[in-house]
Amino acid sequence: MPNALAGQTILLAEDEPLIALNLEMVLEEEGATVIAVTHIGRTDHVDPGKISGAILDVQLADGEVYDLADRLYAEGVPIVFHSGHAERTDLLTRYPGARALTKAADEDLLVKELTHAC
């Protein structure tokens, strides 16, 4: 699935450095422009209107991503949650249409879910 995300701007909210770096590289290899954040405090500048899709870890170093997810969801931005700190059914109830994968999901599966969501 080469360049499955070409031309897409993907928000990656992940605070584990190795996972974040790996996902960023995979997304860029698929043609995406990646906006990576590690702290909730650094998401205020994110304009949901410029985001094609998002991969969100629920628990970042300084808090949970629910306010950010609410903003993205309200604007119709497709979300793939990638977390070991949240109940999948709770996420899918709160964000119908979102996808939820248990961390650490296979990168190909993440790209497939994000591509499908976008």
From TrEMBL:
Domain of life: Bacteria
Gene3D superfamilies (alphabetical): 3.40.50.2300
InterPro entries: CheY-like_superfamily (IPR011006)
Name by which UniProt lists this protein: Response regulatory domain-containing protein
